[in-house]
Amino acid sequence: MTATFPARALRALALAIAAGAAGLALADDDENKRLNINHPEYRSECGSCHIAFPPALLGADSWRAMMAGLDKHFGSDASLDAETSAVITKFLVANAARRDSAGSDGRPLLRISDTRWFRKEHRDGHDGITPGIFRSEAVKSAANCAACHRNAAAGDFSERDIRIPKNGARS
Amino acid sequence: MQSHSLRMFLAGAALLASGFASAETPADFLSRYQTEARQSAPGFSASAERGEKFFTATHGGEWSCSTCHTKNPAARGKHASTGKAIEPMAPAANPERLASTRAVEKWFGRNCKDVLGRTCTPAEKADVVAWLMNSPR
Question: Hey, are the CB atoms on B83 and A49 less than 8 Å from each other?
Fold first, then answer.
């Protein structure tokens, strides 16, 4: 579907870069935010309805809770067979954020956009974000990373690739 | 010697079988679902017209199939909640459609629950497949 990394060496290099970036994933204003999404099954199974979100954006407990409730996944049925589900859970947990992402009730958050880090980085006025942009016709949902992060589908969230749609404020 | 040639034969057979499994065609799905539907309704014959009606209607919920996939199987759709693009459903416009049992059953399984709140019957699947196969590029 999207670009693949055919050469093994290139894949190893990308993994090394991604592993390095994952450690810095939640740091502010990091220029090169390349996050590891390099897992063919994860990308194909969890990158159809939305982009393959980088595992580093949620804690391990959040991913475990997510994978345990795929039959009721944000209003859609996203069920997987047990084997595929286990393989993907392993990848998500291995590449999860080091810190837990729990809500004020202590339960693991399921929406990346509910995390403190996301809300801070995407607050109104920050980096050109206009009020209402997430509900605009051009963006539609905070889950639509690629509306502004043009290379999000490849796990690339670098600041220089951000383009906020001009008509974003209108809905 | 004998066990060696037997092994060769088995390997060849396995290769052949896996080749067949990955080369499913839209017509395979039509005939499979039609056959299943005939077990409870012997006179059943898939109808593209019924398939279109089924695909574009809501079934008690908020969404129809066409909410995300549009009413034109040859067109790109857009996911109703995430906004992500969805490639065309018609095999004539997108050769990846109706090509693998695993994918077809997975998506019927998920999406029928989203649209109808239940699994689709073999007859409904046969009608939809017939309609998608009918669609020009």
Answer: no
B34, part of any domain: yes
CB contact under 8 A, B84 and A144: yes
Asked if A77 and B114 come within 8 Å (Cβ–Cβ), the reply is: yes
DSSP characters over B34-76: HHHHHTT-TT----HHHHHHHHHS--SSS--HHHHH-S-TTS-
- Note whether residue B3 is domain-resident: no
Does B79 map to a domain? yes
CB contact under 8 A, B83 and A79: no
Per-residue confidence in pLDDT tens, chain A, 171 aa: 444 445 555 555 555 555 444 444 444 445 566 788 889 999 999 999 999 999 999 999 999 999 999 999 999 999 999 999 999 999 999 999 998 899 999 999 999 999 999 999 999 999 889 889 998 888 888 999 999 999 998 999 999 999 998 765 443
Is position B48 within any domain?
A: yes
Enclosing domain of residue B74: 25-134
At A79, list the tokens. 């069920």
Count of structural domains within chain B? 1
Give the mean pLDDT of chain B: 89
Mutate to test the interface with A, among B84, B102, B107 (most CBs of A within 10 A): B84
* Option in A74, A80, A144 nearest B83 (CB): A144
CB atoms within 10 A of CB B114: 19
CATH assignment of the domain containing B80: 1.10.760.10
